[in-house]
Design a protein that fits this description.
Helices cover about 25% and strands about 20% of the residues. The protein is an alpha+beta fold and about 180 residues long. The chain has a two-stranded antiparallel ribbon with strand order 1-2. It is elongated, with a radius of gyration of 22 Å.
Length: about 180
């Protein structure tokens, strides 16, 4: 069983509560007398250790952002990552701790395992982003309505690819043209 974390007290609607935030274990956990429980929404089901570990290896949640990446921190844009860390008020912690705190990386033993969200946000090179639609297409319409045929007035600008902050800033510059 994973080690217990310290809780904290809050008062909510006049009731004092003890709050414990427990991270998901990176591997299946055997519960004495209860096998391998796996929580899905508001229910708990019994799965085999192998099935739970397969689910966890796919990224804990079936979304492109939550899946584990094969890249490491060196594949991220360090300047952009430092700027984001400082802007969040977390300049006193390491980049790795920042990624874990933002839940876009996991600490597994001494290793940091990125999630695809970290790559979408901070990829140094666009080709390391594996999502097929991680880009922006910009079209410019000359006039106030789209026309077809001989009066076709839609121009497609070059596709914008890269990490999310750079795509957004390039998109803004394109729309200001």
């Amino acid at each position: 069983m994973p080690p217990l974390v310290n809780g904290y007290r809050i008062v909510l609607d006049g009731f004092e509560l003890l709050v414990f935030e427990v991270e998901s274990a990176p591997r299946a956990v055997m519960v004495q007398g209860n096998g391998y429980p796996y929580r899905i929404s508001d229910t708990t089901s019994q799965f085999s250790e192998q099935k739970i570990n397969t689910i966890k290896d796919q990224g804990l949640v079936e979304s492109a952002e939550a899946r584990r990446s094969s890249l490491d921190v060196a594949a991220l844009d360090s300047a952009l990552l430092h700027r984001a860390r400082e802007a969040s008020g977390a300049s006193d912690i390491s980049v790795e701790d920042y990624l874990v705190r933002r839940r876009i990386a996991d600490r597994i033993g001494a290793a940091i395992v990125l999630r695809e969200a970290a790559v979408f946000l901070f990829a140094l090179r666009p080709e390391t982003i594996t999502h097929p639609n991680a880009s922006v297409r910009v079209f410019r319409v000359a006039g106030t309505e789209r026309l077809t045929g001989a009066q076709h007035n839609v121009q497609e600008l070059p596709r914008i690819e890269g990490n999310l902050p750079s795509v957004c800033s390039k998109h803004v510059r394109c729309s200001e043209r």
